[in-house]
Structures are given as structure tokens and as C-alpha cells.
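Bumping my old thread because nobody answered last time. Still need a sequence for this structure:
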């Protein structure tokens, strides 16, 4: 049999399917027309009668629906679904008693039919039969509970099979079972957990993260989901997201040892030492026997000490104590790592021989320990052991302790260089180190076709005068110490790269020196004269013109062992009663200057219009106008050495240091006019050192 629909000959089955398609698209009128044409051709078609009755009820034409359903029921009196639909259509017309009779007919044949029970419960409630309604509701609840228990049992058994398949490596079959469960219960937490773990096994970390986030949206206190999600983010190197997951969980659910430990792990991986130190300290107090927490807290404390240059006696001793505690019960691998950290802090405290002994112990146990070898570069520098220093310093690149370049571009080496190369020089560490490294730019400029230098944007005006053939890429300092925003078009022009700090090693390997130029400051004549006039105007006309700086720009630096306290700065000033002193201390220091004046009776001159923090060209021009600069080992020290003005520097050395005699710092002190006075780090009274440096200055400049 066929039906003519839209001038196309279709079978009844094809016409039925076409009508269903229109219905699914929301085209109900078109669907109804086709169904009615089919019914006209086949008036006893049960599926069509049932579908049209549904359409009638959707249109609230319950009488028409009843007519069609009665006809259908007469054709199939044992079809309980038709009887139920008829009862619903009659109920909608308010004929509750008739509807109840049809419902009872269904329940007489299928006593646990949930739809019929639900309908009878509603009808008896409408008819005021509260007892019967409550009985039906109780039976409904029991049926639902039984079905739920059955489903839970089946799901648990299926998940157990999936677990077995996973252990056997049959991941695809396991996934099929889990997906089947979720098709029945899309928010089943056990199934989503199992699927997440399966995805993690398959290294499908993005998909795993999606499922774990679903779990946390269902239950924010799901500790396993939070723990696994944080670990997945760690796999994706999305450490800040991993920290946030743990942080949110603790905020919502309260303290939880495992989640908080994972949070601490994320802090370490993300190098968030401040947050890690704060969190680790609290966890260590709550869980003093947890070796992992003690170890992670120690890492944060050590790196916070190193990265913030928090070299105070108290902070360093506290770090040593922390390392000692972490070493108790630590694995051999951790012991070696912690011992290398202890060696470094021991060096900061001045005991170079003990530090060398620790390093020797670690190196004996782990001869391939590159991290330990890298740390030793500070000792090699102190000993002027250049043959060991430069190779050890280079290890910092591959260990991510120094700047690196992640592309396939080769590293520049003087021994392999050609005149056709275009090289990019990358900055690293602090601006003071940058300034020191740029003594060496001529070495590479003379050997290649083109040089790009990425540097602190504040240095560009100064460097442009010193090295006019170089193209500069100004950068802003970022908390991400190795994150450099180099334009793609620049990178595409370059054939090789080198960190600025590696140029010294190239020069030493070829010439046995540490710099290409002892001084590189170049000043426009008008600028030079402008600042010379300002310096001279403030000069008393008698003694030396002395620039002073006593600490770094960090607010926490006032108690750093490398720096002088204010009363010690005042003592230095008293050694030169006829001199004029000019402030070179960048950052907020007005209170310190007032205290210096109070203690010494001398007002330190602040030159109007001089931006010590950001204008390096003008600051260097001022330094060039002075007789000497007396400073801590900071950017002021490095900038002074770029000029021809003698620089007298003081800083912590080791317990072996003789503070009365200057030492070399990367080469001939007389050629560079850089005189570095090192003192024992734990030296309490620094007045003798100050007096010795003052006497050396008088000998060098006043006789």
C-alpha cells in the first residue's frame, strides 16, 4: 500500500518516518497532516492512532484523543500502554472515576507498573481518598528504591569489570562499559571517577580535567576529584589552575591534609615561594611528622631566601634549621638535594670550607648531579677558579636557572661563528647583572653581521650610545624571571642566540680575560656638562665628590648581610669631613637620609631632576662627574664601573675574607677601577672595615 504525500509515492512506513522527522523538527502541523493521511489509508494503524492521540492531547483536544485511543484499545485490548494513555486522556477531562477504572485494569495485570501507580495516586488524591493515595505513594517509593538499588548493584558490578579490564590494559572495552553506565545515569559519580582515571591512564589529560570538573560541579567537597584535577593540571603545566583547585576546595570543605599537601606541591612546581612558604609553615605545624610537607616547606624557604636575597643572619640560620629537619628520614635523593642547599646557605653564612665539604660529599654520591655543579659556581667565583667557574655557570641554562631559548635556533659560540650570522643576545637575572654583561658586547659585534640585544627598557638610551650598531629590544621586568617577549619578526631574522652572561666565558676561553671593554659609558656633551655643572654647584669646593648607595631597592634589604646599616653609612661619611656626598640610592630612602644626616651631621645631596630608578643614562652621567662611588654590590656598583669613576664596593665574602684589602671581581681591578672589599658575612662591627676602605680611598685619591 502507498500514500500520496506531496505528490510523491511513499510506503506507509516511509510516510510514518517522514512524519516523525517533521515532528522532531517542531513542524507539528505538517506531521499531523501526514499522520492523518496515513490513518485515512490505514484506519486501524495502532502506531498512528497512538501518535495522533498524543498530538491531540498536546493540543488539549482530549475528547479526540479519547476517541482514537478507544478505537486503538478495541484493536489491542491487552496493550497496557494504550489503556494507560486512555486513562490519562479521560483524567484530563475531569472524569476521575472512569480514569481510575482503566488504571485499575492495568494494575490488575501489572501490580508494580510505576506509571499506573503514579496515576492512581494522583487520582485518589483528587478524589479525596487520602489513605489510598498514601499507600500508592509508599508503594511507588519502595519500587523506586528497589530499582535504584538494582541499578546501583548493576553499576557496581559493571565498574568492577571495567576496573579489571583497565588492569589488563583493555582500556577501550573498559571505556565502553563506563559510557554505557553514564547513558543510564549521566551524573553517576563512581562512573565519572572511573572514566577520569581511565583518561588519565591514557594521557588524555584535557578530557580528564573536563570530567573531574564535572564531578566538582556535582559535589564541590569531592576530595578525590579535587586531588586528581590538581594533578592533571600539573601534567598540563597549568600550575596556577592546580593551586586554585586546592585553594577552592579548602575554602569550601575546610582543612584537608592531602589536598593541602597537593596545594604545596603546586606552589613548588609553579615556583610560588611566598605562598608556598606561608602554606608550608602552617602545614608543618599541623603535621610535624609528615616528611613530604617538611621537604616541600624547606624548598620554599630556601628559594625564598635565595630569590629575595633575604640574607639576614636570622633568615639564613632558620633555613639551615629547616634543611636539617627535612634531612631526617629523607630519601637518599632528597638528602643529596638538601645537602647541596645546605652547602649554599653555609656559604652565605661565610663558612666556605664547610660549604665545599658539603658539595664534595654530594658530588661523590651523585657525580652526575648538574644542579649541584651549577650551585658550586658561587664558590668557584669566590676562589677566582675560572677554569671551573665558567663551565659550572653555563649549566644554569639547561637547568632553567638562567635564561634559555626554546626554539631550534642554535646557540652562538665564538669558535663556530661566521661573519654572516645575526645573533640575539638575551638578558638574564637583575638589571645590575645586565649592565655588567654588556661590557662584552663588542666581542660579538666584531664577529657577526648583525646583533640584536634584548634588555631592560631603561638601559636602551645608555646602551644605544655605547653600541650604536646594535638593534635593541626593550623589555619590561617580569616576575617570571625567564619570560621574555621577543617579537616574532626579530626571532625570524636571527641565526643564533646567546645569553648575555655567557659572553664572559667566550672571552675567557679565547683571551683569558673577562670583558671586552673595562668601561663603555658614552655621554652626549651637553648631557655630560649639564650633570657636571649640577654636581659642581653642590660641591663644597674642598674635598672629594663621593656618591653613596648602601642597599638594593628591595624594602626587605635593610638587614641583608651584604649591606650597611644606617649608622655604618654615617660612620663612613664621618671619615671625610671635607667631602660632598651625593645620593645614588634608588627607591624610597628619605627617612634613611634624614637619619644619616642626624648621625653624621652631613646632609647628603639629592640632585634635582635625577631619576635614579629609571634614568640610567643621567645617573651614569652623574657618576662620571664624581671622584668616587662608595656602594653595596648592586646596580649602582655595576653602573659605576661602566664609567671611569673609581668604584669602592663592599659585600659579604667568607670567613677567610680580609676586609682591609680589595679583591678582583672578574678581572684586573686597576684597569676597571673596581675595588671590591669583602668581609666575613657574620661580622658584627663593620667600623674597622669602613675605616680601612676610607684609608684606601684617601691613599688612592688624596695623596
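Sorry it took so long. Here it is:
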Amino acid at each position: 500500500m502507498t500514500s500520496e504525500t506531496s505528490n510523491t509515492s511513499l510506503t506507509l512506513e516511509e510516510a510514518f518516518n517522514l512524519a516523525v522527522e517533521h515532528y522532531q523538527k517542531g513542524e507539528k502541523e505538517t506531521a499531523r497532516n501526514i499522520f492523518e493521511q496515513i490513518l485515512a489509508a490505514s484506519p486501524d494503524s495502532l502506531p498512528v492512532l497512538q501518535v495522533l492521540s498524543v498530538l491531540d492531547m498536546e493540543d488539549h483536544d482530549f475528547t479526540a484523543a479519547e476517541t482514537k485511543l478507544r478505537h486503538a484499545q478495541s484493536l489491542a485490548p491487552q496493550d497496557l500502554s494504550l489503556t494507560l494513555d486512555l486513562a490519562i486522556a479521560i483524567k484530563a477531562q475531569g472524569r476521575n472515576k472512569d480514569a481510575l477504572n482503566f488504571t485499575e485494569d492495568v494494575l490488575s495485570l501489572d501490580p508494580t507498573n510505576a506509571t499506573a501507580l503514579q496515576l492512581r495516586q494522583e487520582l485518589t488524591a483528587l478524589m479525596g481518598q487520602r489513605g489510598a493515595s498514601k499507600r500508592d505513594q509508599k508503594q511507588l517509593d519502595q519500587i523506586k528504591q528497589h530499582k535504584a538499588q538494582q541499578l546501583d548493584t548493576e553499576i557496581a558490578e559493571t565498574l568492577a569489570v571495567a576496573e579489571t579490564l583497565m588492569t589488563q590494559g583493555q582500556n577501550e572495552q573498559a571505556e565502553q562499559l563506563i559510557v554505557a553506565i553514564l547513558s543510564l545515569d549521566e551524573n553517576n559519580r563512581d562512573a565519572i571517577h572511573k572514566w577520569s582515571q581511565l583518561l588519565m591512564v591514557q594521557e588524555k589529560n584535557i578530557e580528564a580535567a573536563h570530567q573531574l570538573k564535572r564531578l566538582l560541579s556535582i559535589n564541590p567537597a569531592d576530595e578525590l576529584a579535587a586531588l586528581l584535577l590538581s594533578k592533571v593540571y600539573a601534567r598540563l603545566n597549568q600550575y596556577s589552575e592546580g593551586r586554585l583547585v586546592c585553594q577552592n576546595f579548602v575554602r569550601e570543605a575546610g582543612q584537608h591534609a592531602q589536598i593541602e599537601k597537593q596545594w604545596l606541591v603546586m606552589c613548588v612546581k609553579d615556583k610560588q615561594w611566598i605562598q608556598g612558604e606561608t602554606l608550608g609553615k602552617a602545614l608543618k605545624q599541623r603535621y610535624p611528622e609528615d616528611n613530604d610537607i617538611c621537604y616541600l616547606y624547606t624548598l620554599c624557604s630556601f628559594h625564598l631566601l635565595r630569590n629575595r636575597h633575604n640574607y639576614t643572619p636570622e633568615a639564613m640560620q632558620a633555613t639551615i634549621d629547616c634543611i636539617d629537619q627535612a634531612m631526617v628520614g629523607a630519601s637518599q635523593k632528597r638528602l643529596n638535594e638538601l645537602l647541596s642547599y645546605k652547602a649554599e646557605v653555609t656559604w652565605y653564612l661565610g663558612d666556605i670550607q664547610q660549604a665545599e665539604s658539603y658539595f664534595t660529599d654530594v658530588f661523590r654520591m651523585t657525580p652526575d648531579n648538574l644542579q649541584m655543579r651549577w650551585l658550586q659556581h658561587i664558590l668557584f667565583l669566590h676562589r677566582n677558579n675560572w677554569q671551573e667557574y665558567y663551565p659550572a655557570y653555563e649549566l644554569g641554562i639547561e637547568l632553567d636557572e638562567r635564561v634559555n631559548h626554546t626554539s631550534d635556533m642554535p646557540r652562538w659560540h665564538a669558535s663556530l661563528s661566521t661573519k654572516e650570522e645575526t645573533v640575539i643576545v638575551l638578558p638574564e637575572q637583575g638589571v645590575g647583572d645586565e649592565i655588567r654583561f654588556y661590557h662584552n658586547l663588542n666581542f660579538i659585534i666584531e664577529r657577526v653581521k648583525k646583533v640584536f640585544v634584548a634588555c631592560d627598557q631603561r638601559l636602551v638610551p645608555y646602551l644605544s650610545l655605547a653600541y650604536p650598531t646594535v638593534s635593541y629590544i626593550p623589555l619590561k621586568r617580569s616576575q617570571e624571571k625567564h619570560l621574555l617577549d621577543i617579537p616574532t619578526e626579530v626571532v625570524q631574522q636571527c641565526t643564533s642566540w646567546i645569553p648575555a652572561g655567557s659572553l664572559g666565558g667566550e672571552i675567557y676561553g679565547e683571551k683569558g680575560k673577562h670583558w671586552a671593554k673595562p668601561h663603555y659609558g658614552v655621554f652626549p656633551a651637553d648631557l655630560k656638562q649639564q650633570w657636571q655643572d649640577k654636581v659642581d654647584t653642590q660641591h663644597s669646593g674642598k674635598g672629594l665628590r663621593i656618591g653613596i648607595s648602601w642597599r638594593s631597592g628591595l624594602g626587605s634589604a635593610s638587614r641583608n648581610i651584604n649591606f650597611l646599616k644606617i649608622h655604618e653609612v654615617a660612620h663612613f661619611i664621618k671619615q671625610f669631613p671635607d667631602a660632598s656626598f651625593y645620593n645614588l640610592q634608588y627607591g624610597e630612602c628619605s627617612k634613611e637620609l634624614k637619619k644619616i644626616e642626624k648621625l653624621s651631621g652631613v646632609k647628603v645631596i639629592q640632585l634635582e631632576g635625577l631619576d635614579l630608578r629609571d634614568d640610567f643614562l643621567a645617573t651614569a652621567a652623574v657618576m662620571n662627574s664624581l671622584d668616587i662611588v662608595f656602594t653595596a654590590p648592586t646596580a649602582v656598583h655595576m653602573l659605576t664601573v661602566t664609567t671611569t669613576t673609581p668604584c669602592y664596593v663592599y659585600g659579604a665574602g667568607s670567613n677567610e675574607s680580609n676586609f682591609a684589602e680589595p679583591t678582583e671581581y672578574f678581572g684586573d681591578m686597576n684597569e676597571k677601577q673596581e675595588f671590591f672589599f669583602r668581609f666575613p658575612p657574620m661580622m658584627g662591627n663593620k667600623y674597622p672595615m669602613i675605616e680601612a676602605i676610607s684609608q684606601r680611598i684617601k691613599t688612592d685619591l688624596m695623596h
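The chain has a mean pLDDT of 89. Let me know if any region looks off to you.
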